[in-house]
Specification:
Mean pLDDT: 95
CATH class of the largest domain: Alpha Beta
Strand content: 15-25%
Shape: globular
Number of strands: 12
Largest sheet: 7 strands, mixed
CATH superfamily of the largest domain: Spore Coat Polysaccharide Biosynthesis Protein SpsA, Chain A
Number of helices: 13
Helix content: 40-55%
């Protein structure tokens, strides 16, 4: 038993050390939006069409849309697409549009076959865009007034085709902040966002809160129609950009891009059930393998501290320390309370539960149910890129 624990401790320490180094070095290379200087003149800034899709977002949409109307940008077209909402979303949008004619509101009443609702709504807005750049954002996102101006300048200065910004999530309690921290760690390990700007790397990234693209590049990659049935549309949009040889990068949006992610642990569990299984292309082996890796390398070291002795225990202590430091860095990156790092192993267990639940429900229901619409597993699997 002790021999097995010893050799697994070596493997664990090596793997976690490599991941920690990659995340620490890569994370430092990510530019913060707030550090991007404002342009000296607005004359050279390209025109932008901002598209926001909303379905049953009455709780948060007014704050989000008003932040868009307050953006400091000289040539900005705003399109809000109400996707078959059954709450007051449409009424709120119409009221705001009456007060401010800059906001163009469209109400969709039907969903064409072969489309997820949000993807179709964003696609509809993009088809009516007149700007040189296209910005997709979520209905509950609140942007600091100079965010788009800084982002557009950076995209033009760096010659990018796609620029996304990671948001600063706001959560109502300590444990949900801890979940955001762990989620950020997993996303960093999965997507390696700092590598997205490397044309030689297959790494890609997309963020639903802020995806800014050149309109011509958007059409060249096949538009959202190419990922019409992807619930993970944001990151797959980034993959399309990379597959077509376009240049992309992710910036950090601390203090600039805010999103109220979920209001309760139940909302987290239900909200992620649609896309955690999709992230592994609905492969059972990949889902089980990924969650086994989380249990083996992110949870077991904390248990092994009480099982191992001698040098093995010291190695497991080193592993646990690196995991806490990794979570601490993620907490700093998303402006969460640093003490949430200590909940990392517990949150890992919650994440494993969410992945297993997502897989089980998708298989049992032969698809996913998202925003009151059922999408078959066959259709979802067919849209693989």
């Amino acid at each position: 038993m002790q021999t097995l624990l010893f050799y697994f401790a070596i493997a664990n320490l090596v793997l976690v050390s490599v991941v920690f180094a990659a995340c620490a070095i890569g994370g430092r290379s990510i530019v913060k939006v707030k550090d991007v200087p404002l342009p000296e003149s607005d004359a050279d800034l390209p025109s932008i069409t901002l598209v926001v899709a909303a379905r049953n977002e009455a709780r948060n949409i007014e704050a989000g849309v008003r932040s868009l109307l307050a953006l400091e940008y000289p040539n900005l077209e705003l399109i809000a697409v109400n996707d078959r909402s059954t709450d007051d979303t449409g009424k709120i949008l119409d009221r705001i549009a009456t007060e401010n004619p800059r906001l163009m509101v469209s109400h969709l009443t039907e969903l064409p076959k072969g489309w997820l609702g949000k993807n179709h709504a964003l696609h509809w807005g993009a088809e009516h865009a007149k700007g040189e750049l296209l910005l997709f954002t979520d209905a509950d996102v609140v942007l600091e007034p100079t965010t788009v101006k800084r982002a557009a300048k950076y995209l033009c200065d760096e010659g990018l085709d796609h620029l996304c910004i990671s948001p600063e999530p706001t959560m109502p309690n300590w444990f949900l902040e801890a979940f955001v921290v762990a989620f950020s760690v997993f996303l960093s390990c999965y997507a390696r966002p700092w590598k997205a700007k490397d044309p030689r790397s297959k790494a890609h990234i997309g963020i639903g809160a802020f995806n800014l693209l050149r309109l011509n590049a958007y059409h060249e990659i096949g538009t959202l129609q190419a990922i019409a049935m992807r619930p993970d549309d944001d990151i797959k949009l980034g993959k399309l950009v990379k597959l077509h040889g376009k240049r992309q990068e992710m910036l950090a949006g601390i203090g600039m891009v805010h999103v109220p992610w979920y209001g309760s642990l139940r909302e987290v569990v239900v909200g992620l059930e649609k896309n955690t299984f999709a992230a592994v292309d609905y492969r059972i082996s990949a889902a089980l393998g990924g969650t086994f890796a989380i249990l083996a390398f992110n949870v077991f070291p904390f248990i092994a501290l009480f099982l191992a002795d001698g040098m093995a225990r010291w190695m497991y202590l080193a592993v646990c320390s690196l995991l806490w430091l990794l979570a601490y860095g993620a907490a700093e990156a998303v402006n969460a309370r640093r003490t949430t790092a200590f909940a990392f192993p517990v949150v890992c267990l919650v994440f494993v539960y969410i992945q297993w639940r997502s897989m089980a429900l998708t298989l049992a229901n032969n698809g996913i149910r998202w925003r009151d619409t059922h999408y078959s597993l066959a259709e979802l699997k067919a849209n693989r890129i």
